[in-house]
């Protein structure tokens, strides 16, 4: 199977007027960075990929995940993980319950707990399952949010300004962890950012979106 995410002749229109166009394939472990001015349509493009495009827009073209066309699938049938800048953990649930939230159903209680414990080890948070999220540092919360997304078994990752609220050191740490994990799990990554350092760290192709027309 060819592990990849393809945006084939994708065009987002508002009121019948094309806003942005993208035509690109992201291979497993690769990062495609999308930059461009505020309001150009970067987040809207991500919502088209996750199947949550607001009704004010129309998306045309195809989205292929591992060569299969998912353009018409409902959001829950698209195995795509997304991380936002404000990926808040559910405050009324333990860290372990937050992680369980993203996991597909199935397996015994013991098996599910083993997956949570292994996930926590992967992000250097061994033993944190019973902790209250309020007692975690910003970096620890970011790592739990990353693992919650990964435990849903995504086959591609979308990052929407995912590192922008983290301070410099933490930003480098969490960003490196995300890219390393994507390479290890052979996940294509599409990253939206305003930050040139994020783009350089990704090391992949950078697309600068420009407004096709004022809608
Ligand atoms: N739900 C919506 N309904 C109508 N218009 C919207 C909606 N969401 C966003 N827009 C508009 O669509 C355009 C694209 O918005 P989008 O959030 O995709 O831009 P962006 O490139 O991600 O911007 P930023 O870099 O500031 O996050 C903007 O003009 C925005 O005002």
From TrEMBL:
The keyword Nucleotide-binding applies. Residues 2-215 form the ABC transporter domain. It comes from the Bacteria. GO terms for molecular function: ATP binding; ATP hydrolysis activity. InterPro entries: AAA+_ATPase, ABC_SmlMolc_Importer, ABC_transporter-like_ATP-bd, P-loop_NTPase. Keywords: ATP-binding, Hydrolase, Nucleotide-binding, Transport. The keyword Calcium does not apply. Signal peptide: none annotated. Its EC number is 3.6.3.-. PANTHER family: SPERMIDINE/PUTRESCINE IMPORT ATP-BINDING PROTEIN POTA, SPERMIDINE_PUTRESCINE IMPORT ATP-BINDING PROTEIN POTA. This is Thiamine import ATP-binding protein ThiQ. The lineage of its organism: Bacteria, Pseudomonadati, Pseudomonadota, Alphaproteobacteria, Rhodobacterales.
